[in-house]
Structure formats: C-alpha cells, structure tokens
Design a protein that fits this description.
The protein has helices at residues 26-32, 56-63, 89-95, 100-109; strands at residues 3-8, 12-17, 37-40, 44-48, 77-82, 112-117, 124-128, 144-147, 151-155, 158-161, 166-168, 171-175, 197-202. Strand 6 (112-117) and strand 7 form a beta hairpin. It has a 4-stranded antiparallel β-sheet, covered by helices on one side. Strands 5-13-6-7 form a 4-stranded mixed β-sheet, covered by helices on one side. Strands 10-9-12 form a 3-stranded antiparallel β-sheet. It is α+β, with helices and mostly antiparallel strands and 204 residues long. Helices cover 16% and strands 32% of the residues. It contains 4 helices and 13 strands. The longest helix has 10 residues, at 100-109.
Length: 204
C-alpha cells in the first residue's frame, strides 16, 4: 500500500493513496478503528475519531501491512435494471471504438463497486472490479445544465446513476427507475453505500 498519512484537524487523519482504490481498504479500516468513522474518496480515506489526539503514527503503523480486498465483505450486492436508450449511447460507443451492442454488453458484464457517495446526495461513483475498457472515455467538454433523475452514465473509467435532476458531464447511456435516494427515509436514504457491488441488467 503506497500512501501518505497526515493529520486533518485534531480528530481526523487523511490517508492519500498513490495507487489502488481506497474502497479496497474500507472494511479493514473499519475493523481496525471501530470507534472511528471511516469515509472514502476517489484516492483517499478519512478516519475521524471521537476525541482529539495525535493519531498519525497509529494510523501509519496500521497501514503498513494492509493488502487490498477486491470486494467489501460487508457490502451488499444490488442489481439495477437499465433501459439502454441514453442520448449519448451512440457517440460514447464510437469514441470507445465499439458498437452500441458491445458497449451495453460490456457495461452489464462489468462488476461495479461503489467507490464513494458524493457530489450530490445518493450519487454513486462506481469503479470497475473486473475490467478497465471505459478508461479512455473522458467527461463531456460541456456539461449539461440538467440531467434527469435515473440517468445511467459512464465517464473516466467509471459509471454512475443520477439520483435526482442536476447538472452533469457524464455520457448518458440509459435510464433506470431505481430510486437512488429517498429523502423521506430517516435511517438509510441512499440505496447504495461505499463498498457495495452493483450489476446492471437490461430492463425487460
């Protein structure tokens, strides 16, 4: 594990990775620091402790022998049905040098893991566990002012589902009726959490 550890205020520690996926270390961190709140970013983890102290050395020592875990054992597996009729399906396929059928097949065959929830409530950044062929697809040069709720998209090697209508710069390849964020739920408003595994299938 190539990393740097630094204090982040007087109760938290920031772990920045030079390589690998932070979510691969989430479960181990949660077990090593059960009293803390562990959150993941795209290239970092944040460990927030309940009391003020100097935790840097403790965290550095704990990280030395960590090995990546492909799938978070505590995460759930969710299947999301997609209507692959997104307005960017053809253009994204062309940019990747494949047919629309090949893109759809690849999107479904890919096992995705939630790297983090961010940008907006319930918005999942999904990273591929078993392939990386979407890496060469950059975000749109000009983001849309409004992407509808339920839009399924790809960009920068990742996939996502828009939980609500918002601006966005990902390539839209389909839509889903799955509710990614329930604002009326007090306990678990987000359908997905970091470490969960997502599979996509074509809606019937």
């Amino acid at each position: 594990m190539n990393f740097t550890v630094s204090a982040y205020g007087d109760k938290a520690v920031l772990i920045e990775l030079q390589s690998g996926k932070p979510v691969e270390y989430l479960e181990q961190m949660q077990k090593m620091f059960p009293e803390a709140n562990v959150r993941v970013g795209l290239q970092s983890l944040m460990i927030s402790f309940p009391e003020s102290a100097d935790y840097v050395e403790r965290v550095e020592n704990a990280c030395v022998d960590l090995t990546p875990s492909e799938i978070n054992g505590n995460g759930k597996e969710i299947t999301i049905a997609v209507d692959y009729t997104g307005e960017d399906l053809e253009s994204a396929s062309a940019l990747l040098g494949m047919t629309t059928s090949e893109l759809i097949k690849l999107h479904q065959e890919t096992i995705w893991q939630v790297a983090l929830i961010g940008f907006a409530p319930g918005f999942p950044y999904l990273v591929p566990i078993n392939q990386t062929r979407f890496e060469n697809l950059a975000r749109l040069e000009t983001p849309r002012e409004r992407v509808p709720a339920g839009a399924v998209a790809i960009a920068a090697g990742m996939s996502c589902v828009y939980p609500s209508a918002m601006p966005g710069g990902w390539h839209l390849i389909g839509t889903t009726t799955a509710n990614l964020f329930d604002e009326n739920s007090n306990q678990n408003p987000s359908l997905l959490s970091a470490g969960d595994v997502v599979r996509f299938r074509e809606s019937k």
